[in-house]
């Protein structure tokens, strides 16, 4: 594995796991009132587009990070819609 791929995987891992505390807090408290619906929808759409880009250019770090981030962001978005 070359240096750029390693850096990409580390960066993707760090930015992806950054969502875990928010997801955990929202899940446990069953409250997402302080989270912006517009931000979550925009972010989730952006992550989906990054995933498509990663697939198009065949960039494994971009694909891996954005698959996981999309799942986390979409889950938070669903919780926001459910718990408002």
Please characterize this protein's 3D structure.
The protein has 84 residues and is mainly alpha-helical. The protein is 83% helix and 0% strand. It is built from four helices and no strands. The mean pLDDT is 91.
Percent of residues in beta strands:
under 5%
Distance between the termini: 43 Å
- Structural class comes to mainly alpha
Instruction: Give the ordered list of helices and strands.
Output: HHHH
| Alpha plus pi helix count | 4
Arithmetic mean pLDDT? 91
Q: Count of DSSP E strands? A: 0
The major beta sheet can be summarized as: none
Q: Segments where pLDDT lies below 50 for 5+ residues?
A: none
The share of residues in helices is over 70%
Rounded to an integer, what's the Rg over CA atoms? 14 Å
Shape: elongated
Please describe the topology of this protein:
Blueprint: H1 3-17, H2 20-29, H3 37-57, H4 60-83
Concise structural overview:
The chain is mostly helical and 84 residues long.
Characteristics:
83% helix; 84 residues; mainly alpha
């Amino acid at each position: 594995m070359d240096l750029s791929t390693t850096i990409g995987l580390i960066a993707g891992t760090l930015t992806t796991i950054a969502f875990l505390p928010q997801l955990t807090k929202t899940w446990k408290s069953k409250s997402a009132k302080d989270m912006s619906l517009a931000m979550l929808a925009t972010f989730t759409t952006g992550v989906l587009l990054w995933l498509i880009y990663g697939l198009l250019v065949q960039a494994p770090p971009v694909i891996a990070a954005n698959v996981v981030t999309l799942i986390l962001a979409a889950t938070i978005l669903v919780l926001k819609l459910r718990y408002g």
